[in-house]
Structure formats: structure tokens, C-alpha cells
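Recap slide: Catalase, sequence and predicted structure.
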Amino acid sequence: MKKTTNHAPVKKDRDETGNGGELHQRAGGTHPQLTTQQGQAISDDENSLKASATSRPGPVLLEDFVLREKINHFDHERIPERIVHARGAAAHGFFELTESLEKFSKARVLSKVGERTSVFVRFSTVAGNAGSSDMARDVRGFAVKLYTKEGNWDLVGNNIPVFFIQDAIKFPDLIHAAKQEPDRGFPQAQTAHDTFWDFVSLTPESTNMLMWIMSDRAIPRSFRNMEGFGVHTFRLLNAAGKSTFVKFHWRPKFGLQSVVWDEALKISGGDPDYHRRDLWNSINEGNFPEWELAVQLFDEKFVEKFEFDVLDATKLIPEEQIPLRVIGRMVLDRNPTNYFSETEQVAFMTQNVVPGIDFSNDPLLQGRNFSYLDTQLSRLGGPNFAQLPINAPKCPMMNFQRDGHMQFEVPAGRVSYSPSSLEANTAREDSQLGFISTKEHVEGDKLRIRPELFADHFSQARQFFFSQTETEQNHIVSAFIFELSKVETVAIRERTLGQLANVDMGIARRVADGLGMPGKVTKVATTVPAREDLPPSSALSILKKAKKSLEGSLIGCLVADGSDATIVANLRKAAAKQGCNVKVIAPKIGGAKAKDGTVIPADFQLAGGPSVLFDCIFLALSGEGAETLSNEAAAVAFVHDGFAHLKVIGATAEAQPLLDKAGVIADEGVLIVNRGATSSAFLERAALGRIWKREPSVRTVF
Ligand code: HDD
């Protein structure tokens, strides 16, 4: 039977009509009766209606409305996928305010300390289609719908605080260049191809964002380990009508973490659902993803003295200049009940703000405010998508908008207009409570222009690069080399090197060297050269602010027949104390026979549990197990990759043959746990993160 939710004007559950009981009985007392969409009980769901179907089937009859309705509904099961951010995963939760911003905003969600507001948050990649891999090198969408008591507020952000372009008119070009090339339909979910680099190398305003997407921010360990940003400057408006500029930041409780590039490539094969599975599992396990909401507040005085324009979405405001002020927390504690109804049909729109929160004149934001409603109309099929349970506000809602496709409301009465006098208690506007735009004086000529302050495209790109640790800088250089190595047109590679030279000649030369194109660096002409005096900002680096903790992480523990069950049990106990989970990988999914005769249950079979799925690895092997696994390519790759991906490796002394076969060289991240000893040294080192020092010994750094 079709189940309905308790959201207002939808069709009544049949149980409520009184028919349900009877149908239930008809189905044999234990299951609800299967019916058509019109509620007619179905007698046979296995066979279509056929003419003269005695020994051999005759033709299927057009009359079979049960068959036709079922196939017809199936034929229409898909809606157009999002043109960008098609691949996503989402969860429900709440936002709780911890510090009131009442002085700055009249929005209740920002002023009532302790009040919880329901949220639905969708994370996504940008370029890939709905079925692409989670681990593509890409920006991640971070879209938050807050169902406030004063209407829905959507903060439709990304995990990177700047953007590729300054004006919405360039968005279709950017996306056409980034997505699959139109003649061949590939590559999928990646920017490593000619059209993307052609466009960005001709669009110098993208340079700052390029630094960010070539950094490890674009290959996050999980959604839980990402920051989120509203990107644009918004405005807050208080009860007296005074406006303050604001930027919004989400900061993850589990800390920022990313994977390394070779690992990202392998995760895409090992588990294309890596991020959505992680989100789903962590919520199911009660390990709720959590973020702080922080704001940067500033006034006109700061706007005047800031080196860049606060309305330019390709720039950020360093935290050293305007510190973050933490005002609340967001917890995701419930997985969706139905992926399509919720995650697919959720309609985020930047235009969704509540009284007390307002837009700025950022031309990118202004264009977005048009695009999101427009796209929902075609994606969700008409103007009534706000009635879908996932999109409906959770506060009283009343207006005179009527009819249209899929109208679920059944409004009573004669009055569907305003002003009116025929009925008492029709909805009226309220100048005190209602949404008011910031009062702003505007004058001047109507022109298609970019403000002068928008013209510096390289200074913040340079500041970003030199704010990174050496390891992170190496990764950025390698990412440029990887991406440009996939660009077939040499002139595009050269032009990109020329733009990079505007950031810093040293970076451009390193990339050129890695491409085997030394001597090919010629600066592209620019009117505003990069400033070299911007101080580095530690907040821009992942590693400088990494949390030294294992909370929420996964240990992959390799076992085989003959393993010591006590070692595994002890590891589990010690790991649980640190809030981290142990998953056991064995040659057979039925588990491994421990030396004491018990069975160590397995979570993964070796071939389906590569080490890329875990944050660190532990080899709980007996001598016999290590010998056997040394001849097993998947086991050797498990250890080899763990080492090459700079992970901390714990192992029993008996595991040495496998370590040797995998080419592991002893260093501070390889910890041998002696018989009877605890695994605490391994866990202590693992909590500090990867062994970055190992990197130059496992790959060439240009
Ligand atoms: Fe956008 C989706 C974030 C610029 C037009 N965008 C979309 C989503 C996120 C963002 C997170 C997915 C929402 C979801 O999960 O359903 N977009 C951004 C950010 C931007 C940005 C942070 C720059 C700061 N977007 C941008 C521009 C335009 C769009 C300039 C058009 C002028 N974005 C769209 C869209 C999408 C979308 C076509 C596709 C599906 C949808 O809206 O619902 O309207």
C-alpha cells in the first residue's frame, strides 16, 4: 500500500479511510494489500493479461490497466538530474544557536540561543553525473536548508570559500567547459581535459579557485571532514534596520582531512560511494557529523579599507583580518528515509532567506538568485515543488498563489486575491514582521562593467599557495601536473603555465618541469600583478589546523587463519576508547580461524576491502598467515598502498614477510606490536595523522 507522510494536504492513507483494514485482511492478514495508484486491489503482480493464454501465450491485452499503469509509472521514474551538483548525499539534523546575533540580525534563527532548527543538508560533487564517483577531484557542494520558524533559509555553499568566476553570466560557460566534452561525452566527473583548462586559462579570475581545487580540499576524506562556506558576502539586518556584512563558515568537529591523490584514484574504483557510505554509516552508528557555524562580521569601514572588493566571490577575507565568531552548531543525526523523495527532490535556492538576512550586491549571488528557482521549475516539473514534504516550510504558510501542475493543496473559499473584503481572516502582509531589503542608495550609469577592485586575480592565489605547508604545496604542484598532463592541446598547457607564472614563477617552473616542458613558461600579460606582501594565513592550510585525533576514523585490520584473536579484540577495545572503529579484512568473508580455534568475523573480503578505504592499517597476522598472504596480490597491494599513501601501519612481528614483500621500509609510521603488548603506540602515532615525511621516498615530488 502506498504510505503517505503526515505532511499537510497529501492523499489520505487508506488506513485512515477505513478501507485499509479490509484490504489488509484480503491480503492474508499479514501484509498490506498491493493496489494500483487508484487503490484497486491487484490479484496477480506476476503475469500480464493475455488472450487465449492456455498452453502458449497469446497477445498481451491493451485492456490490462494494471500492467499499463505499472510500466507507465516506471517510464517516468526519473526527473532531470541537476545540471551541476548532480551527485549528492544528504541527511537530516538540527542547528542550535549558541551565541545571539540579535544586535545584528532580527532573524529568530540567529537570535534565540538554545533554540533548535531542523535542517536538511545535501553534499555533492559539481561536475560529475548522478552515477559518478564520490572521490572525483572537485569542489564539494555544502547546501543547508534551515526550516526556521520564520520560513526556509537556504545557505547553498561549497567546501571552498572562493569561486571560479565573478559574474553569473559566465556560469554556463564555466560548467560547459568543466563537464564532459559535448562531442564525445567524456571525461566524466573530472576537470582534467582540454575544454576546462582552455576556459580557465583564458579566465584569469579563476586562478585563485584553481589553487584551491588543485589542493587537497578537492579530495576530502569524508563529508564530515570538510569545511563549508557561504562564499558570498551577505547582509544581516537588525530590528532598527541597520545592516552588517557577514560571511558564513561551517567548521567540522572531526577536523579537516583529505586523502592523497593516488588513493583518491583507487577509492573511485574500490568504492565509488565512499563519501555517501561514510555519511550513512556514521549516522547509523551514532557518530553524528557535526559542524560549528561561525561568522565574519564587518562594516562599511572595513569594506573601504580591505585590499579587495568584498562583493567579489573569487576572494576571501582572511580570518586574521576578520576573526571567526562561533555562533552555533549543526548536527546531522538522521539519514533520509527515501533517497528520491528527499535527497533528489530537495530544492535549494539562494533566494531563500528570512527577515533579518539579506543579499549583497555580489553579481554572482544576484545571478544565482534567478537561477535556482528557474532550475527547480524544470527539474521538479512546475511551481508547486515547495509543497513536497522536503521543501515545505515547517512554519505557517499562506498566500494566494494557486493551481499549477501537481497542486496538492485544496484551498477553500472564494478569495484567492488581495486586497479582499469577502472573507474575514484572509492573509495580509505585515511591514514589521515581513522581509525588508536593506535600504541602499544606488546611482550611476547603467553599464556592463566589472568594478576596478575586481581586477586583481593573482594576489590571493599567491597568498593561498604560500600559506600551505611544504607537503600541501607539493600536492598542489602535482595536481597541476596531473591535470595538465591530460590536456592534449599544448598551447593550452603553455597558457596555463603563463597564468601560473603570474602567481609565482617558481610554481610555474615546477609544474613545467613535471610536465617535461622546461623553458615553456611565458607570463600571460596582466594589468594587475600579484602582490607579494600579503601575509600567509594559517587558516587556509588543512595540515596546519588538523586535529590530532582518531575520533570518527577507521582502522583496517588484516587477519588470516592463525591470527591471534586477542590482539584484534584488544585493538578494538583501545580504538573504541578513542572513538574510532576497527574493520576486519580477511581472505574469506566468513572470517578467519584464529589460533585459539575461534572465528574472527570479517567485515570485508580482501579483494573488496583495499587499504584505501581506511585511515590506517593493522596487520594482525601469524607467521603462517603472513607467508600465505605474501603470495596474494590483493594483500601485498593492501600493505603497499597503505605505505605509499603515507598511512600509519601497525603489525605483529610475524607479519614481517608481508611487509617485506610490499616494500615497506621501517620508519616512525611502521610500528611493530610485540606479542602481549597493547597497540597503544600504534594508536598514538595514528592519531597524529599521516607520515608526510615519507612522501619523497614513495613518489617524485617536483
Ligand atoms: Fe550553484 C546547484 C553551490 C554558483 C546555478 N550550487 C548548486 C548546489 C550547490 C551550489 C551546493 C547543489 C544544491 C543541491 O544540493 O541541490 N553554486 C554554488 C556556489 C556557487 C554557485 C557555492 C558560487 C558561489 N550556481 C552558481 C551560479 C549559478 C548556479 C553562478 C548560475 C548562475 N547551482 C546552480 C543551479 C543548480 C546549482 C543550476 C543546479 C541544481 C540546482 O541548482 O538545484 O541552479
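Residues 88-387 form a domain with the Catalase HpII,  Chain A, domain 1 fold (CATH 2.40.180.10).
Residues 82-85, 88, 122, 124, 141, 143, 156-158, 163, 168, 171, 231, 313, 346, 348, 364, 367-368, 371-372, 375 surround HDD (CB under 6 Å).
(End of recap.)
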